[in-house]
Amino acid sequence: MNNQLKGIFFQLLRMGLWGEGKLTLTQSLTSDDWSTIRRYAINHTVEGIIYDSFPFLEEQQLPPQALRLKWAVRMDQIERHNEKMNEVIAEQFVLLSDKGIHPILQKGQGVASYYRIPNHRISGDIDWCFEADGYTKARNFLKNNHPNFQDTAGFSLEYDWKGIHIEHHKRTFDFRSPLKKNYLRKLLLDYKYKQETVKINGISVRLLAPELQLLQVNVHILKHLITYGIGLRQFCDSARLYYSVSTQIDPTALGYIYQKTGILRWIHLLHQILVEYLGLPKSSLPFPYPESIDADWMLEEVWYSGNFGVHDDRFENSKKSKHFAMPDSPKRLWQNFKRYVKYAPEEAIAFPLVHTYSKFLGKDKD
Length: 366
Hints:
The chain is an alpha+beta fold. It has 14 helices and 7 strands. The longest helix is centred in the N-terminal third of the chain and has 34 residues, at about 65-100. The radius of gyration is 21 Å and the shape is globular. The model has no long low-confidence stretch (mean pLDDT about 90).
């Protein structure tokens, strides 16, 4: 995609994300242009957000009718899938709560509730974390009632429930450095009184406190940047979350959390992208970022890598190995280590060590 079309893509993304604006064009978009825009929207799992920009376009600016119809069919599928996910979330929350287990919904449909049109956010799976010993209790419940789950790397487990993929996480936050473990545990206790709920199919489902939701969503982005990359959907999550909870958070406290966890320098880069590319008002940020920083290089990496790095055309014909998830993995991981070690050194250094441990030694065994 050339720079001009890329600029149009981000115009559409901002319009769909915030529900305002007009599309500025120097020349009309062709059918091929729209096909390219749609392909990149799929790569970044933001086709629902781009679709939400269509009501703000002039008639002659809209995609060809055949492509609009195909897009509308896809939106119907996304909406149906989200409705099914909501049914499962409500069912599981009640089921686990009745067993004395206290689940907390992570990311996904919890974050979707902060969007203009929640059912247009694409959710891959349902993520639960737990209070106290809830992870162990939930695992024991699954052993007796749904034994086809798999323990996975990253201190998690996964299974399917009524056709929806579910993940349980021992760790609430995607920090790799073990040096932060005690501080993160203290954060969960300190902010327990600020936990929120979201109504899903009539059930009040528990979410983290707004400050901790931001920490969770943002460090999840960093985790994937350090590995194979991540798409624009997660940046949209961060933008909508900041916009929605900015008046509820303590900005000084949040800044201290970012500093204490060692990611503040990277957070400044993230904030610049949210403002300058996604249109988040600066007033929604908890604190200003230095005007001297340049996050364009990070946006370029995000743009090329796509959702979790699986659509990166730069490595399409690269060597694959049974020991790694992606083509040319050693090269990609080394490049990302060098990019991010100065912005989040503990996380970049800890990643290969903790990931290896969690993969081979950190899985639960019965």
